[in-house]
Write a structure and sequence with these properties.
Layout lengths: L11 E2 L8 E2 L5 H19 L7 H13 L5 H7 L5 E2 H10 L16 H13 L3 E5 L7 E5 L1 H9 L1 H9 L1 H16 L1
Antiparallel strand pairs: 1-2, 3-5, 4-5
Length: 183
């Protein structure tokens, strides 16, 4: 099988998009052959996902955990998943949806306004949410998820499914930790 760029003459770009060839006068055949020769290496570099045996894997996990290290980060991201909200609506939505925690030391969770302000600031700094302030009175401030945050929430679905699948493991871990805390 020939490469899609093979046989491209000076000024012609062969494209497999929709089966049509396109003309591109600024690209020479030698440049296309050069790109074609590098394509397998570029594809290999992009397609090598980190695995637990990869030295990058642990560092990537730590980076992820540090980025999302705030106690209320997930609550705010979930609150914004349905669309942009103003500060008070975020506060009310998070307070209304605080799940019961069975983990030791987490019996009382109440989101304070100052904590929400810090959390929103850090999420803006982390580029996971955007803050938009109206230019006219009343100067309402709205928060929304960025595309990477939407992608992150979608990527967490398998983690939530894993947690649900292994709920027995979680219950046993919670019980053991409660026992260790009570000792």
């Amino acid at each position: 099988m020939s490469h899609p760029l093979e046989g491209a003459s000076k000024g012609t770009l062969m494209s497999t998009e929709n089966g049509a060839a396109r003309h591109c006068p600024s690209i020479s055949g030698s440049w296309l052959r050069h790109l074609a020769s590098r394509l397998p290496r570029l594809q290999q570099k992009v397609s090598t996902d980190p695995t637990p045996n990869d030295e990058r894997f642990l560092q990537l996990i730590h980076d992820f955990l540090h980025l999302l290290n705030g106690e209320w980060y997930w609550d705010v991201l979930i609150a914004l998943s349905d669309g942009p909200l103003q500060y008070t609506r975020i506060l009310n939505k998070v307070r209304a949806s605080i799940p019961a925690s069975n983990w030791p030391g987490r019996a009382h969770r109440n989101l304070q306004e100052s904590t929400l302000s810090r959390t929103l600031l850090r999420l803006v700094q982390s580029e996971l949410i955007e803050r938009e302030r109206a230019t006219r009175f009343p100067f309402a401030t709205t928060y929304r998820l960025t595309p990477p945050a939407r992608e992150l929430l979608f990527a967490m679905k398998p983690v939530a499914e894993w947690t649900e699948t292994h709920c027995g493991l979680l219950v046993r871990a919670q019980q053991r930790r409660r026992g260790a805390v009570g000792e």
